[in-house]
Amino acid sequence: MLSKLSEAEKEINSITIANKEELENFRLRFISRNGLLSKLFDELKNVSKDEKPVIGKKLNEVKKLAEEKYSSVKQSIEESGSKAEEIDLTLPGRNFSIGRQHILIQTLNEFVKIFREIGFKVTEGPELEEEFYNFDALNTPEHHPARDLQDTFYIQNKFDKTKKYVLRTHTSPVQVRTMLANKPPIRIICPGKVFRNETVTPKNYFMFHQVEGLYVDKNVSMRDLKGVISYFVKKFYGENTKTRFIPSFFPFTEPSAQLDITCFICEGKGCKTCKDTGWLEIGGCGMVHPNVFKAVGYDPEEYTGYAFGMGIERIAMMKYGIKDIRLFYQNDVRFLDQF
Ligand SMILES: [Zn+2]
């Protein structure tokens, strides 16, 4: 009996099991109800009382050895099996898409690059802004229509009741902050999000992106403004694009102008995009109002400057023929993939 057990022990230790079939044979031979070890357990009753504890102990040891071998081999066969199943070379490959910049960021970067090349520095500021920087310092008196609750998101500040806060309605407060902190010459562009309390429609959204520019120095004139804008327009829309200024009004500039360019789709002949006028409005501009200079401590007799602003969504919508502003913010890959 003991010699049979020793033989079995040797064999269990040395046997190699390569696949499921061999494993099953191993189970049948040693562990199953009709296997060798069960038979030896049956024979245990014929063993003398003296030998029983020794043989019984040995039998249990060998049984444990066989069971451990079985479960460890089974586990390793299953693991390697599942790995083999994962790689099925007959399956078609999986698609994966590469991320890219959002069309608004692409447009913004293109815009910023052109102005950086001619010496403008990018400056940013807070989106939650004090009323002073958003309105007061920009020559927008308290009862000006732009301050109407219809247009501006006012924010309550429970901790500081001495200041009024708004979600900035334009990026111009960044210009004020920059002028308060620096002496001329100043040549900056300020890109960023702005907020207006508007009903959401295909043409309007309560948030959009703006880029504003500011140049302040001695002897800056409207001619400098026209030169820089024409340069930008030719770079951005093409060499043949023409610019025109139409008299307009902004509280923070005097004189003020609406900025038009010849339609880049029909090249001025007239089409659906330009409503047959041959011209497209792309923004506003003007010479900085003396009151703005006074608010930041500059002498309007010594310094002059120009400012301009354009909406990034509007520019992108015209350039790519996008009909609905809401598409920019829905993160629909079918839309974003087109750019
Ligand atoms: Zn046109």
What coarse outline follows from CA principal-axis ratios?
Answer: elongated
Ligand set: zinc ion
Helix content: 25-40%
CATH topology of the largest domain: BirA Bifunctional Protein, domain 2
Q: Any chance you could write out the topology, listing elements then pairs?
A:
Layout lengths: L1 H13 L5 H12 L4 H8 L8 H35 L16 H15 L3 E2 L5 E3 H4 L19 E2 L9 E3 L4 H10 L4 E10 L11 E11 L4 H16 L5 E8 L2 E10 L16 E10 L1 H6 L8 E8 H9 L12 H4 L3
Parallel strand pairs: 1-5
Antiparallel strand pairs: 2-4, 3-4, 5-6, 6-10, 7-8, 8-9, 9-10
Helix pairs in contact: 1-4, 2-4, 5-10
The protein binds zinc ion.
Note the main attributes of this structure.
339 residues, alpha+beta, BirA Bifunctional Protein, domain 2, 2 domains, seven-stranded mixed sheet, three-stranded antiparallel sheet, 11 helices, 39% helix, binds zinc ion
